[in-house]
């Protein structure tokens, strides 16, 4: 290298540098730039994925057959591989390192679904800012996140990774996370030194997998696709997302990773996306497996023509066959050039040609930053949802002498962190038991009984080897004796805190369920503890609704803690004793039983609405807890709801105002939620749709006026009859309150 090639001249616009570099690449080298390889260098990961050969990947880097690598998570390995690319590959083009930075890197935030429950986009943004800073410090440039799939079937394990069932909330969380990862850009669109590329996924409809079974096909009506599943992607694109990941599955009979209508006409032409699209793992090769492509060469041509710019693969990329596909006329070189331009643009935006290596001297300081842990603690506090409280919470600390903590999850650091993390540190993780003992100190005796075992997964996953840690239970564990011990400790205590739910590897990818029951004998244990007469608080650790019918009927207090992250135990303890007032709200409808699935807020009125509550003969046709539900230690009143312009024209905007008053004697957060219903028009509309929310902190007695703007973005919808976006002239009902059951309402007209 002479050092004066135009593509290395940082004074030139990125577009000129990209064009110069593309002109220098051979067709084979172009195919390399759009190929991303797994690199399993750790023993546990290599064992779980024996097909991936580390030496072959390094050889591909040297030969220019790899433009990107994923799963490298230590700075020394990243810099070593980058040195191979910069010093030994043709033209010295740096590698792009990607990783699953889902809800934190070293500092683990609550599960993404939990952060959505905060109803605070700023919390989501701050968490991903921390994740980006830590990931970039070890050489990672790109997160395969946020997951913005709408999930309306809680059997689906990857529900934990998204924002729940609602497209409005999902869109707000998608945009905030993109901004958190990518930070502020300069005039050429370049990212800062501590930011990484965001990669919203999975386009599109993955959350609607048939039967909630991971990797299954999705069959989604145009109405639902445009109005429910696509809006969070559009929000992510508008927020500047540099990358989009395509989905594995068939969408309405066409594999998403080979669907030109989806990847080009919708994503680029309709939404205006300008970044690059990557496949999910092996999804291009899977086009042949799914009987869409006849072989891997055909798969490569179809994916490239569809608009998929980079293939993620564990071995033998289909995109290595692109030169053959071009020679056969199956795809054009210009289509490949366009994909290469998009990938190289991302590398230039990251400044990799000027600064390809991570500064190893700063890595430890960044990963150990105390401020990052504080962000995690605050996020956990904001995410907690108080599902039920009959006055037991907050606990009367001065009156307590002994607290019995029960449940294996109470002292499981790994489970507290949740799934889909790979660089965690369990030694610094604060469990619920840790948090309570630290909060009570020596003033209260805190006992712990592991209690009922939580059975392992029936079908182990490759991810278990990389994510799991040994559990309390194992061969020979005596459930009877363990439950008896828990009951005995409960009898001697003033209050029992039971931490129940699912282990972290019982949710996430390849972790769908056919039942929403508490695993193992946890329900029996709850029943026996309740029979002691000692007040019982249930702290639930899960990322899906579980069957709480008995608990809701019989226990005085239930707190949904999700998987609360690195500092989650402190947050739970603070909420239980009243140091903070829970203010999280459910981002999904909490069904009573799996037989009600799917059940959502924004359903339609349909026929005979007066009997909607009795559609099942054996169970009410209502949720156990509605969307947006969450209790508080404070009390709030909504009043004086009004609309500035009660009659507006199509395309105009009006403002809804409401007065919110804290009528209690303590400071607390409240999540004010606005719901909308269109009474008539060119299509039926849902009974209620979330169209605004604000999380606010009010002092005792404080009164504040809140305002929500309603304009074309909130009032329009995609119409399956006219096959396009419409805004009808109609009468609109609007409600504002603390959940989707808000009763304070008014109307306005669109003429």
Briefly characterize the structure.
This protein has 751 residues and is of the alpha/beta class. Strand 13, helix 22 (522-531) and strand 14 (536-541) form a beta-alpha-beta unit.
Task: Kindly list the characteristics that best describe this protein.
globular, single chain, alpha/beta, 17% strand, 751 residues, six-stranded mixed sheet, 25 strands
Structure, described:
With 751 residues, the protein is α/β, with parallel strands linked by helices. Helices cover 31% and strands 17% of the residues. It contains 25 helices and 25 strands. A six-stranded mixed beta sheet has the order 10-15-14-13-11-12, sandwiched between helices. α1 crosses α15 and α17 (370-383) crosses α24. It is globular. The chain starts with 13 loop residues before the first helix and ends with a strand. 56% of the residues are buried. Mean pLDDT is 94; it is low at 43-50.
In the predicted model, the low-confidence regions spanning at least 5 consecutive residues are: 43-50
- Spatial gap, N to C terminus: 66 Å
- Radius of gyration (Å): 26 Å
Share of β-strand residues: 15-25%
**Oligomer category:** single chain
Overall pLDDT metric: 94
List the helices and strands and how they pair.
Layout: H1 14-24, H2 27-33, E1 35-38, H3 43-48, H4 54-62, E2 68-70, H5 75-88, E3 96-99, H6 112-117, H7 121-137, E4 142-143, H8 167-182, H9 222-229, H10 231-238, E5 243-245, E6 250-251, E7 254-255, H11 260-270, E8 276-278, H12 286-289, H13 296-306, E9 311-313, H14 322-327, H15 333-349, H16 360-367, H17 370-383, E10 385-389, E11 402-406, H18 413-417, H19 432-440, E12 445-449, H20 464-467, H21 479-492, E13 495-501, H22 522-531, E14 536-541, H23 549-554, E15 557-560, H24 568-577, E16 636-643, E17 647-648, E18 654-662, E19 668-678, E20 689-698, E21 703-710, H25 712-715, E22 717-719, E23 724-726, E24 730-737, E25 745-750
Parallel strand pairs: 1-2, 1-9, 2-3, 3-4, 5-8, 11-12, 11-13, 13-14, 14-15, 17-25
Antiparallel strand pairs: 6-7, 10-15, 16-18, 18-21, 19-20, 19-24, 22-23, 24-25
Helix pairs in contact: 1-15, 2-15, 7-8, 7-17, 8-10, 17-24, 19-24
